[in-house]
Amino acid sequence: MDEFSFIESIKQKAYNQASLIKGIGDDAAVFRETQQDIVTAVDTFVEGVHFSRQTMQAFHVGYRILAANLSDMAAMGAKPAYYLVSIVIPDNWSMEDLSHIFEGMKSLSSVYKIDLIGGDTVSGDQMMISITVIGFTEKGKARYRHDAKAGDIVFVTGTLGDSQAGFYILTNPGSYKDKTYYVKKHQMPVPQVNFSRSLQGIARLSLNDISDGIANEAAEIAEASKVSITINDDVIPTSHAYRQFPQKLQKHWKYYGGEDFELIGTVPEHDWPYVKKMACLHDVQVTEVGKVTVGNKPGTVFVNVNNQIAVLPKKGYTHLK
Asked: pTM for the whole thing?
């Protein structure tokens, strides 16, 4: 199958978004939107750095890559509408593999009714996939990291450390409790788009998606908002069978593991009941994990462990480090 036949094979037969004028088939896609703010995000994933065929089937590669981008949309309070895929294809990936990658994306995109509207395919020495997602928010309703203020409640969705626990299981064969649960959390994370969208009624809210660990994400909010954040170690949510893993890894994963693609946010205390109500409606676990404060070290995250306060270092995974 040549490039043009492959593009034709992944082309949607029908589109979901009314604002789309022209999808795949010309040099560029065209859509028209005048009533909402446009939000865009792009991520690039490299084989051997972000994913491995030893721990993921091709379907999971596509699913997880798109999920990561949709999690960025959730962090901005945006409704995803379109995505574009650029892919570098090495010789050791077959056309069947490529089809499965796009099937993984299609599986997730169908849940959120988003349309594939373009991209690029080239040959190369290493598999690389870059996805651009385009979404919309009501005017002035995009969520920013710089909107945290002293007195706000700090919360997270879901449980932390599960993705890294799943990776550990896949790379360390053995007998584990809830093995299927952890592996699925690693291979097929659920972006919190619908929950994020349900919070549009809150006037001020900061959000960040947990892609590089809560320590990194909390620090990004603290730095952007010029505040301090204190997190209580004993209330950080972890899953039922999490204690089966080595204690050192438990601690590391919940702060620095990343790739859970949950959300961390800050919200005024009077709006916290509304957050909990929306979480209940969307069957999402939310947990209050700390408070926003103003001290001598703006941009710093502290952790309270057994009533001992210490700085929580910002040392999650970063590229070019």
From this structure: 0.91
The DSSP bridge pattern shows strands 308-311 and 20-22 to be unpaired
Tens of pLDDT, residue by residue over 137-157, are 999 999 999 999 999 999 999
Strand partners, 119: 85
Round to whole Å and give the CA distance between 215 and 256.
Answer: 6
Residue 109 lies inside a defined structural domain of this protein: yes
Q: Identify the three-state secondary structure at position 105.
A: helix
Task: Please provide the DSSP assignment of 143-175 as one string.
Answer: --GGG--TTPEEEEES-SSHHHHHHHHHHS-S-
Amino acid type, 32: R
Residue positions counted in the chain: 321
CA 91/CA 118 separation, integer angstroms: 23
Same-domain check for residues 288 and 226: yes
Q: Domain residues for 60?
A: 3-138
For residue 184, the one-letter residue type is K
Tokens in use for 271?
A: 């709006």
